[in-house]
Amino acid sequence: MKIFNVFNKNKEDEIKTLRIELAEVKAQAENANRVKNAFFASVSHEIRTPMNAVAGMSELLSEDAVTEAQFEKIEIIKTYSNIMLGLIDDLLDFSQIEQGSFKLQPVHFCFPVFLENVVSTAQLAAREKGLEFTMELPEELPPYLFGDSVKLNRALANLLSNAVKFTEKGSVAFSLRVNENILAFSVRDTGIGIKPEDCSRLFDVFEQVEERRNKGLAGLGLGLTITDNIVRVMNGKLTAESIYGFGSTFKIEIPFEEGNEEQAEFGCRNNENSYISAPDAKVLLVDDIDVNLSVGIGFLKLHDITPDTAASAREAIKKVCEKNYDIILMDHMMPETDGGKASEIIRSFGGRYAKSDNPAQLKIIALTASVSPESKAMMLNMGMDDFLPKPVTKQSLNRMLMKWLPVEKYEIKNKPLEKFSKEEPLFRELREKVKGINTKLGFRRAGGTAEAFKTSLMLLCRRITGSLEKLENCLNPGGKLQDFKIEAHGMKGALAINGLEALSGFAYELELAAEAGNAEMCRKNLPDFAKELSELKNALSEIFENHLEPTAEKKRGDSEVLVQIIEHLIIDIERFDRAAALEQIKNAQSFDYGAGTRLLGLIKADLEDYDYDSAMEKLQKFNAEADS
């Protein structure tokens, strides 16, 4: 009996030890998986930044190319940039699949335009390899669908890319059949095919069958895995048929739901001039960088929206308490209180301020340069509804307004947009005198008008001296690297918006050094950054002096009227109503008030810099001197 008990005791101890060991192994595996996913997300984010620049610059060059040979070379750069971005997307998608966060984000979209975009890249790649590309579509297509167009695009693009990649001669064929509520896609090629014994491994992670034979062909072995997961999430199925040496056929069958033209971002019949007009929308734009605010105002004006603005989280919270907004566009990274914390405070008010799916509730959209799933999840957890990547584009803002504004507050209109002209005198002088500026990119990013771009550059020019002082003070005893990081981050965005990509990259390096706690690196590189910014300011100052409007003869203004203007300005500034104050100053500057004219100019400069305290100090000093 005693022997039996000892045996049981030993067995129990052994089982207990095994359980502990299994728990440790499981914990190590889970931790390794988290580290791997974090690595994928980090690498994807860091590579995407320069690759987006390569793809974007190629796109701009293709519009300026003057010879057929140049155009063809640029098209090759664009093609392989897209391949590289596709590999990055594979990593991000796979990371989401591993974490169980791979979810659909359905929208209403124009199906014929979607198909055209999917096929165009494959057609170009096939043509470059000398392959025949055929497409067979039904005579009648559903004009609008409701579904995740981005993920469906990824799935079809993966199949088409593989077909072209693994076919050296012959053809690639794309076809679609519509059966009741099922879309049946087929991609057939005359490529190398797949051995029967390899078919079972097609959808395995990091698998590329016939590796020796496929040597030199780009790929991570994730494309089919991701495509299979996309199709499964869409309640569809992916199948493959192949004859080794003669080609393969991949088929996708998915159910579809018809979409709504009125809710589609752009209709099938709309052109690039389509935009959302929402003059009654109540929008609050929050950013501590004056250049970003100026650009944001310019973009919103394209949608007939006159936004309120706030230069800090504290000011934003105050304005939210005073007015009912439909949408807050909230900068993520701000000094003192960041956008996430401000959102948490606003949501804590409850009622219409609480986060909800109800379109009538307040919507908070993060303005951010980070697009990683972790950043998005963090922002959503802090009370935000969505995020708008920087730099903002007309298309991305248009999409965000359509997604979150109540439907009764907007309508889709068409209007001609101002065309970029590189021969415009200001742009020509900028290219001659400002090192590294891309005027076409700056024109687009600043809102698509010459006036908006000029205003944005003037604000950047005015900001440089103060920004450099802040950066230097942060490195002095008692300064904070976190404040240095925030200021470098702000300058990075302000430079990028104005088409100064190289300088923006320099600011990003300083931001990363501060984030890593490397004060020595910041001290080492700041003088070179300051030198380049000072040269930029001098060049811009000289240019703007050459392009000042000639001043007309002004009538003498009444001193009593000036006193009334000052009183109204004090009221406007106390309410943080910057737009009303600037409008008053604009009207007042039609007259000559002697020394008062200079005062109004100084106050205008303060308000353009969102420095309410300085403006109020000048007004109060004027009143005190007038009373004495």
Short structural summary:
This protein is α/β, with parallel strands linked by helices. It is built from 20 helices and 16 strands.
Helix content: 55-70%
Chain oligomer state: single chain
List the strand order in the largest sheet. Answer: 2-4-5-7-6
Give the total of beta strands: 16
SS-derived structural category:
alpha/beta
Low-confidence stretches: 203-221, 548-552
Shape: globular
The count of helical stretches stands at: 20
End-to-end separation = 109 Å
**Rg result:** 29 Å
Biggest β-sheet description: 5 strands, mixed
Q: What number is the mean pLDDT?
A: 77
- Our estimate of the beta-strand percent is 5-15%
Keyword list:
628 residues, 56% helix, 5-stranded mixed beta sheet, alpha/beta, 16 strands, 13% strand, 20 helices
Any chance you could write out the topology, listing elements then pairs?
Elements: H1 2-64, H2 68-99, E1 107-110, H3 111-128, E2 132-136, E3 144-147, H4 149-165, E4 171-179, E5 182-189, H5 223-233, E6 237-243, E7 247-255, E8 274-277, E9 283-286, H6 290-301, E10 308-310, H7 313-322, E11 327-331, H8 339-347, E12 363-368, H9 373-381, E13 386-389, H10 394-404, E14 411-414, H11 425-433, H12 439-445, H13 450-474, H14 481-497, H15 501-515, H16 519-546, E15 555-556, H17 559-574, H18 578-588, E16 591-592, H19 595-608, H20 612-627
Parallel strand pairs: 2-4, 9-10, 9-11, 11-12, 12-13, 15-16
Antiparallel strand pairs: 1-3, 4-5, 5-7, 6-7, 8-14
Helix pairs in contact: 1-2, 2-5, 3-4, 4-5, 6-13, 7-8, 13-14, 13-16, 14-15, 15-16, 17-18, 17-20, 18-19, 19-20
